[in-house]
Write a structure and sequence with these properties.
This protein is an alpha/beta fold and 280 residues long. It is 41% helix and 18% strand. The strands form 2 sheets. Strands 4-3-2-5-6-9-7 form a 7-stranded mixed beta sheet.
């Protein structure tokens, strides 16, 4: 498939752009495995981001009811037209997904959907955060990302990989690394290995929680990893030391704790405590 990809790109005078993070996966067995692990079935609507030359799009179209793909590089239109010629259940939109409102995208999709993508490394975190914080109809994300990013997404509290994005994901769902992909499987070969992460969204996982307030606490908690949480709350949330200590104690959190040791549940309790001390 690698040779056919190169031939197809050359025929359409398309040179891959580093600025778009264009590293295409050409192993058909791996592509089929991504679709399988994403749990794509005949009734599913799939949103793909970064269709590239359409290798993954094609595998998705074989299994899904509908595939809507976003591709920023309009030069790939003739390539995708040829790759996907046999499928009537695919629509490619040549726009930058980062400039679209999630609500508008979901309105167009018309119902629940699954997101599957081989994401360019440089936009992985912004895209994931955008959908985690703003989606209402997304049921799962199955995404190819840089291996070290996969480690962060699925990390446990108190580990070196655990961070604000881990908590953000845990507030809306659960992430796990499905399998790893060596760099040699891509064209051109990137400088790092990759992994497929699946994030299963859980509707109303923490029903009733003020997620905006929780996110404020999370941002404060991770603002300086070397500092104790109490100091980060003072600086990040403009609390007095007394208020910060009262909030931590009320939430059942040690006054010497650091932000990276708290679970999503801990941050929810803490945000409730912070609101109470602020309101007097």
């Amino acid at each position: 498939m690698e040779n056919s990809l190169k031939t197809l790109l050359a025929k359409n005078n398309v040179a891959l752009k580093k600025a778009y993070g264009q590293n295409f996966l050409t192993d058909e067995n791996l592509l089929a495995k991504i679709v399988e692990k994403a749990g794509i079935g005949s009734g599913d609507t799939v949103l793909e981001i970064g269709c590239g030359a359409g290798a993954l799009t094609k595998e998705l179209a074989k299994k899904a009811k509908t595939v809507i793909g976003y591709e920023i590089d309009k030069r790939l239109e003739p390539v995708l037209s040829e790759t996907l010629a046999e499928f009537s259940n695919v629509r490619i939109i040549y726009k930058d997904i980062m400039r679209e409102k999630i609500a508008d995208v979901e309105k167009m999709l018309g119902g629940e959907y699954k997101l599957v993508a081989n994401l360019p490394y440089y936009i992985t975190t912004p895209i994931v955060m955008n959908f985690i914080e703003n989606s209402s109809l997304l049921t799962s994300m199955s995404i190819m990302v840089q291996e070290e990013v996969a480690d962060r997404f699925a990390a446990n509290p108190a580990s070196s990989d655990y961070g604000a994005i881990t908590v953000a994901i845990n507030l809306r769902g659960t992430a796990k690394t499905v399998f790893k992909v060596p760099r040699e499987k891509f064209t051109p070969v990137p400088n790092v290995d990759s992994a497929v992460v699946k994030i299963d969204m859980e509707k109303d996982k923490f029903r009733g929680a003020d997620l905006n307030a929780v996110r404020d606490c999370v941002r404060a908690g991770f603002s300086s990893r070397r500092k104790m949480l109490v100091n980060n709350l003072i600086n990040g949330l403009k609390l007095t030391r007394g208020q910060a200590e009262t909030a931590l104690t009320a939430a059942g959190i040690s006054l010497t704790a650091r932000g990276e040791t708290l679970s999503a549940e801990d941050y929810i309790r803490l945000s409730d405590s912070v609101k109470q001390v602020k309101n007097g």
